[in-house]
Design goal:
Elements (H helix, E strand, L loop, with lengths): L8 H8 L3 H9 L6 E2 L5 E2 L2 H15 L4 H8 L13 H7 L7
Antiparallel strand pairs: 1-2
Length: 99
């Protein structure tokens, strides 16, 4: 699986000092859009981490989540990227993964 530069929610929680629950809430609000593994696990990019830190600072400055969403132009859900395993890709193309 290609996960270089991607972080799990637990690691992002430690990096941002936000709880996993807060991170999931901000995702639900459309403020971050982490990629997902085929199994559904969230993988956050460096940009996602940066966005979460910006959200945290804006909230500390007194902005509401609704104001941040309006400021960022968050109005509708966008499709999530799924991180695929290279083995799964080969299997769906009909290639053998074992010699």
């Amino acid at each position: 699986m290609i996960t270089e530069g991607l972080y799990t929610i637990g690691v992002v929680s430690q990096m941002t000092n936000l709880s996993e629950r807060q991170i999931r809430y901000y995702e639900k609000q459309g403020l971050v859009r982490p990629a997902r593994t085929p199994g559904g696990r969230r993988l956050f990019s460096k940009k996602d981490v940066s966005d979460l830190i910006r959200v945290k600072h804006l909230l500390a400055m007194g902005y509401s989540v609704a104001e941040i969403k309006a400021r960022w132009g968050v109005d509708r859900p966008k499709p999530q990227e799924t991180i695929e395993s290279p083995y799964k890709t080969r299997a769906t193309k009909g290639e053998d993964t074992y010699e």
